C-alpha cells in the first residue's frame, strides 16, 4: 500500500519480560512539556508515555527544534518467551498540520494573484514550486532521522546497536544537502529576480488595494 505520509513500521522481539521493556523505555523518557527552553540540556532523550499496552514518544531536540524528528508509537505483545514491540514512526501530527495549512495559504494566495492578473504565469511557476522543494527536503530529512531513531530504539530495548547502514545513511545526507543547496539557490534567485524588476511592478496587487 502506498502511503501519502511517510511512515516506517518494524518489529523488535526480545526475551525480556514486558516489565523490563517498560523500565528500559521509561528510563529514557520524561513527561512532555508545553514550553521547553532550547538551552535546557538537563532532560531525558525522549518525551512521552509508556503503558502496559504500548508507548508514545518523540525525541527531545538538542538546541533548535527539528521538524523531521519522527513521532514513535509502540504496541506491546507478550508471549511465553518474552515481548514483541510493534513500532511505527511517522512525522509529528503538528508538523503535518502546519505544513498543510501553510501550503493551502501559499498556493491560494499565488493562485489568487494569478487569476486576478497581478502576477504573470512565469513568476507564478517559480513561486508555486517552493512548497514542493520544502516537501522533498523534509521527506529526505525524515528518513535520515528514521535511521537514527531505529538504531536508538534497538539500543534502548535490546541493549545493543543495530548494524549501521552507513552507505544508505550517508547517501540520504548527501541528497538532503544537495537539495537544500538547490532550494537556497532557488530562493535567492527568485529574490534577485524580484528586486531587479521595475519599481512599478512592486506595487500592491490590485485585489488588496482599497476601493
UniProtKB/TrEMBL annotation:
Record keywords, A-Z: Membrane, Transmembrane, Transmembrane helix
Segments crossing the lipid bilayer: 95-116, 128-146, 169-192
UniProt protein name: Uncharacterized protein
Native source species: Acaryochloris marina (strain MBIC 11017)
Amino acid at each position: 500500500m502506498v502511503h501519502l505520509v511517510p511512515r516506517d513500521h518494524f518489529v523488535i522481539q526480545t526475551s525480556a519480560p514486558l516489565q523490563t521493556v517498560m523500565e528500559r523505555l521509561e528510563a529514557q523518557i520524561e513527561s512532555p512539556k508545553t514550553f521547553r527552553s532550547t538551552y535546557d540540556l538537563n532532560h531525558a532523550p525522549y518525551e512521552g508515555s509508556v503503558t502496559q499496552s504500548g508507548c508514545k514518544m518523540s525525541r527531545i531536540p538538542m538546541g533548535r527544534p527539528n521538524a523531521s524528528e519522527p513521532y514513535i508509537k509502540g504496541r506491546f505483545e507478550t508471549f511465553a518467551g518474552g515481548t514483541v514491540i510493534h513500532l511505527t514512526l511517522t512525522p509529528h501530527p503538528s508538523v503535518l498540520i502546519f505544513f498543510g495549512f501553510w501550503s493551502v495559504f501559499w498556493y491560494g494566495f499565488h493562485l489568487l494573484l494569478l487569476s486576478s492578473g497581478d502576477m504573470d504565469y512565469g513568476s507564478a511557476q517559480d513561486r508555486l514550486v517552493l512548497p514542493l522543494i520544502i516537501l522533498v527536503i523534509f521527506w529526505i530529512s525524515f528518513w535520515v532521522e528514521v535511521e537514527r531513531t531505529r538504531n536508538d530504539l534497538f539500543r534502548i530495548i535490546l541493549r545493543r546497536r543495530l548494524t549501521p547502514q552507513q552507505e544508505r545513511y550517508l547517501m540520504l545526507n548527501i541528497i538532503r544537502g544537495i537539495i537544500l543547496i538547490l532550494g537556497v539557490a532557488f530562493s535567492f534567485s527568485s529574490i534577485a529576480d524580484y528586486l531587479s524588476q521595475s519599481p512599478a511592478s512592486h506595487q500592491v496587487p490590485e485585489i488588496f488595494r482599497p476601493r
